[in-house]
Amino acid sequence: MKTAALIPARYASTRLPAKLIQDLGGISVIQRTYVSSVATGVFDEVWVVTDHKEIEKQILDLGGNVFMSKKAHQSGSDRIAEALEAVDADLIVNVQGDEPFQDPKSLQDLVSVFDRPKVKMASLMCRISEDEAYNPNTVKVVLDEKKNAIYFSRSPIPFNRERTEDIFYWKHVGVYAYMRELLLEFTSWPKGRLEQIEMLEQLRLVERGVKIQMVETEHQAIAIDTKEDLDRARNFLRSIL
């Protein structure tokens, strides 16, 4: 089974303008995401899918693969689905363009669950505290006994009615892996009601009854959304060089 990482890289960003081309240790954020994805050794191919010539140039300067997409896409999943016309792979992993430090073990664990014939989609999760669970920007997931997602929410789920002290929560880490056919089918569906309420695209799949196999990781990714995030990434990079 051929595996490809596709990195959606939209140029426009609200809280940190042009964040993907900001300098991060001598190369840009998107270049570092590309390089670290390749370095994991998990993928047969790595592609950046972008709507902007500067990002295209930066990846080509590295000798990388780039697909130029339309500018009008509602989600990263829609953007990478368009790129499948150029990418010949069976398993597609959606790697976030603003997460420059990819973890080989997490990605290998994610890809490995597709050895099971019934798995068509998977994603990552990590444990968080109850305090973190009350942050609506942190997406939580609850599971069935086989670690398939039952529901995703910005609310703290499950609700700790009895104030049990040893409860923990699962945070959804937004790295998705899809079998090619499911990704193409998913992005052709209209938005579901729950998706529109919570503004979480994965709920479109839950509403349709698609099983999403969740995989635990201990890796805490640095996602760059603000200037403070960028400073934190630069400090982290200095600490490991």
UniProtKB/TrEMBL annotation:
CDD domains: CMP-KDO-Synthetase. The keyword S-adenosyl-L-methionine does not apply. Pathway: Nucleotide-sugar biosynthesis; CMP-3-deoxy-D-manno-octulosonate biosynthesis; CMP-3-deoxy-D-manno-octulosonate from 3-deoxy-D-manno-octulosonate and CTP: step 1/1. It is an enzyme of class 2 (transferase). It is found in: Cytoplasm. GO terms for molecular function: 3-deoxy-manno-octulosonate cytidylyltransferase activity. SUPFAM superfamilies: Nucleotide-diphospho-sugar transferases (SSF53448). Its EC number is 2.7.7.38. Keywords: Cytoplasm, Lipopolysaccharide biosynthesis, Nucleotidyltransferase, Transferase. The keyword Cytoplasm applies. Its main location: cytoplasm. It catalyses: 3-deoxy-alpha-D-manno-oct-2-ulosonate + CTP = CMP-3-deoxy-beta-D-manno-octulosonate + diphosphate. Belongs to the KdsB family. Activates KDO (a required 8-carbon sugar) for incorporation into bacterial lipopolysaccharide in Gram-negative bacteria. NCBIfam families: kdsB, PRK05450.1-5, PRK13368.1. HAMAP family: KdsB. This is 3-deoxy-manno-octulosonate cytidylyltransferase. It comes from Algoriphagus oliviformis. The lineage of its organism: Bacteria, Pseudomonadati, Bacteroidota, Cytophagia, Cytophagales. The gene is kdsB.
